[in-house]
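Sequence only, no structure available. Ideas?
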Amino acid sequence: PQVGNTLVLRHGVRSHPGFFCQNSRNITLRNVTFHATCGLGALFQFCENLTVQHVSFVPGPGRRVLSGHDDGLHFSNCRGQILVEDCRFQGLMDDPINVHGTSVQVLSHSGGLVQGRFGHPQSIGFATWAAPGDQLSILDCRTLNALGTAVVKSFSLSDPVHFTLELDRPLPAGVDLALENLTNTPRLLCRRNFFGSCRARGLLVTTPRTVVIEDNTFESSGSAILLSGDANAWYESGVCRDVTIRRNRFLHCLTSYYQFCEGVISLCPEIPDKAGSSGFHENIVITDNLFDCPGVPALYAHCARQIRFSQNTLADGSDLRQAVKTQYCTIALD
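Reply:
I predicted one. Tokens follow.
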């Protein structure tokens, strides 16, 4: 800190979003400006088919640097299509956009009967986390390897943290397990948005369905795009299997190294046993983008398969292979 800097402090818990939408479908949020929120900006939970257009999170008059206490747009356990276009994000104290599911811990299981718990204190009490007929993925917590799938027969909360789940088949024995709901996973189209400087990253996305991120401008202080996913800490689930990142401009990103910010684009799932991973994210295409972020990796990735980094421009003329850092990955560079 230097003389003349502005110090911004967060206080209180993030229990009051500016806009809250749950168990709804075919919702459009358009031409709305958020100048200040005491929690997440717009929170969507267990919703289907969402459109966000011409929405801004920007500091208002007299609030020169801060527009929100946490994320801007937060999509949790949604399904169908999410469209975010022509939006603007500046001055948020967390990520402008976060799209994810919720992993749960398996405490015990016998036959098809499972006793489990929600792992993170900010993601509890989800009475609609699963419904009969939903398809779940069974995960090894150490490697995040998928061990198979199961179909839900019944789901009920015992209290806000614990639940009972009945499945159509028994779970594997001898492994620490987590579950994620594959039915509650959305497609995402994110285009023509401006991601200005916020305290954390730009866009977080963890969903196995089709993701297209195109024609955006990123000036994120941390990583511009993060593909995360875990079943051990934040419990924000979702392996990415079909992601296209194209025609974006990355300008002066990653000036600060926040959590998971290892590259301008960071493929950084939380996997305790990386060497044992069979590869988490896969089929990631990064093409025709401009990177003007000198001194930092354009791409960092671990535990990923089938990455293509092609026809991208590095404004400082860096060697392509020096701009890409990988571990336990398969990648094509051209």
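The longest strand covers residues 146-157.
Hope that gets you unstuck.
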